Amino acid sequence: MTLTLFRLYHILVLTLRSVCSVAFSDHDFDTRCALRNHFEPAFKTQGDFVLGGIFPLHYNQEMPDLNSTYQPPPVKCNGFDPRAFRWALTMRLAVEEINRSKELLPNHTLGYKIFDSCDYPLTGQRAVLAVVNGVTEKDHGICRGASPLLAIIGESGSSQSIVVSRILRPFRIPMISYFSSCACFADRRKYPTFFRVIPNDDYQVKAIAQLLVHFNWTWIGLIRGDREYGRFAVQGLLRELQGTSVCVAYTEIIPLIYNQQRALEIIQVALSFTERAFHSRAKVVVVFSAEGEMTPFLKDYMEQNISGIQWIASEAWVTASVFSGSHYYPYLGGTIGFGIRKGYIPGLSDFLQTVTPYIYPSNPLVHELWEALYGCASVPSSVVDLPICSGEETLMAKHAAYMNTSSPRVAYNVYKAVHAVARSLHNLLLCQPGVGPFENRKCIYNILSTGGNIEFVLVGLFDGTKTTGQELDIQEDRIIWAGHQSKVPVSVCSDSCAPGSRKAVRRGEPVCCFDCVPCDSGKISNETDSVDCAECPEDFWSNPDQTACIPKVVEFLAYDTVGIVLTVISAVGACLTIVVLVVIFHHRYTPIVRMNNSELSFFILFALVLCFLCSLVFIGEPTNWSCMLRHTAFSITFSLCISCILGKTLVVLAAFTATRPGNNVMKWLGPNQQRAIIFTSTLVQVVICVAWLIDAPPYPSRNMKYERSKIILECSNGSSLAFWCVLGYIGLQACLCFLLAFLARELPGNFNEAKFITFSMLIFCAVWLAFIPVYISSPGSYADAVESFAILASSFGLLLCLFVPKCYIILLKPEKNTKQHLISRDKK
């Protein structure tokens, strides 16, 4: 932060003026500025320039009785804080170090006045008013005279710093805070003389937000102190969490004046969210609170014998003295947080050991230190009921709350703040216009705040100078979580949705509370906690787990189980037909063959062989040629077969009719006429098929409507009208043949072929009438299988009904294969 020459001049000049100088007479001062009470510093020493120091040496307050019947006493401070006492002594050490230096302010000395703010804004206000009134309040019974106050080192809490900064603002007295990280101080119009040596809370809330996202803690509790620090930090965190998957289950406020009953209520709220069912548990609790607020709260928390909460601590209390005792570990062990940068302060440990009640017998704070560390009173007292110390007590490393000098953090900030003021004053006093030592040879000085690097205690680093998303570096294997667990705690409202499902937000609940809904068929999600399922491309389908799109199964009547069975049946049927053909041909001169028109029988058997074989065209992947061949070959061969049967039926009917006197119908049904009938009847079907192939031939198609998970390869009819015309013509032929055969069923003779033609046509029509509805309702390979089965069934029906009786007589009953037997009737 750069101060202009005008601002710096006024700040340093106004510090040398009396902050209480007003245009009154001496009499007015005596009557209007008389001190009503005294607020003595904890430590003080004189010097050419005086630094004020304000530290929260106590963390609790006891409010006086305000009944307006007498002058109320000051706020009583309770709960001595050895850690903050170490900060105050660090300021003393830094001042004494500067005064001994021959290079820094060689001809000047620094003094100091250190006051206790009691971690309370009103007490901080009283402290700042006292610190600007000379070396001691007793020396200035009236507000007159010059004050050598140079700057104030303080305060720790942001609420106290706001009060102090506003009081100092009219006097242009700078204050350098060592622990106030509230983002509100970035407003230079409101706080023009406020500076600090600790990063802005914007860095911390960003780091905590990234930490929550990193460990997938999506359902958290939030507790803050009732001061500006907590309020602005929570606002910043909520701002950082916008657009992330993290939701806040509850927000609670620790009261400014600590109240145990209210604290227990907060603990119960946190506990209720922690002990819920596993799939809805806010186990992680983020706390933005000063050490003074948090210390009594944590003590009440531990007295409830509660464990299992994963605390996320802000920098204000993550290194607090409350963690120094081993008995706190079962309850607070695993607490994780962001600590400010640590440094090295030479001679701090030795200096702290010189502060004992025997060296400072009149300093009540030193006596309180002994009481806090050893639980004994250094001198008899009617206020505290403690045993008298032996006088042999020695400060040791186990008194970490006070003696932790191996990695000072806040104390190091105090040390830096004192040196920053001293060096600023040193450069100002040596500055000569036109010579420097500042840039451009001018008396301007840059006071810079520290950078954005916040060290994450022991297990990682948050580097605010890196690009967004790369700031956080966590070494998870070094973390021991709450409850001495090595596994990352779960803090979610709902369990993560596994790949293959999506999140469905529950109505009326935060977005972090959701149900996991499996993706619909044909849609996938391949990430955890997907908000939507992606639809697979047209030729792909979701796998059983709904996590990946896989190519759709291509289905057609292949040479699998069904295809092989149909192929075998077709081959068997064709072979049987050929066997029958051989038998008939071998016995072509026998009466049973000659009397039933052997030529037509051969035509029928040839057509049946083709019928059996044409079913094979329906097996295999559809192609342009196979689709056109399927229905045309089937229709023409069956039309040829039925035409031959029709011709045979006409011949049978005419033969028996010709026995009547004067009937010469047989001359119209000679061999040539029979061939003409067969040719003409078959030609009609051929013409229909040719027209079909020319106008709208069948073609292979991909059916993805019937079953979306499959691609059914089938032959589209091209023209449905042509398809049904083909079937209709075959049906017409079969019906006509059935009708004629039915009329000739009662003709005389032991072997009436009209009966067998009637049965064959009856089976044929039954098969194809059953085929039509099944074919319409069956897609793809099933339709092909049904049609192929219908072809084979009707072909077997024709073969068995027409030729098995003849073969039976030829092969097994040759004695009946005589003309006399065939044309006569058996007498019963």
UniProtKB/TrEMBL annotation:
Domain G-protein coupled receptors family 3 profile: from-to ranges: 562-826
Q: Name one GO cellular component term.
A: plasma membrane
The molecular function GO annotations come to: G protein-coupled receptor activity
Keyword list (alphabetical) reads: Cell membrane, G-protein coupled receptor, Glycoprotein, Membrane, Receptor, Signal, Transducer, Transmembrane, Transmembrane helix
Please give the name of this protein: Olfactory receptor C family, v3
Where does the UniProt annotation place the signal sequence? 1-21
The family note in this entry says: Belongs to the G-protein coupled receptor 3 family.
Domain of life, per the record?
Answer: Eukaryota
Query: Cross-referenced InterPro entries, in alphabetical order?
Result: ANF_lig-bd_rcpt, GPCR_3, GPCR_3_9-Cys_dom, GPCR_3_9-Cys_sf, GPCR_3_C, GPCR_3_Ca_sens_rcpt-rel, GPCR_3_CS, Peripla_BP_I
Membrane-crossing segments per the record: 562-585, 600-620, 632-656, 676-694, 721-744, 756-776, 788-811
Q: How does it sit in the membrane?
A: Multi-pass membrane protein
Q: What is the lineage of its organism?
A: Eukaryota, Metazoa, Chordata, Craniata, Vertebrata
CDD domains the record matches: 7tmC_V2R_pheromone
Pfam families per UniProt: 7tm_3, ANF_receptor, NCD3G
**Localisation:** Cell membrane
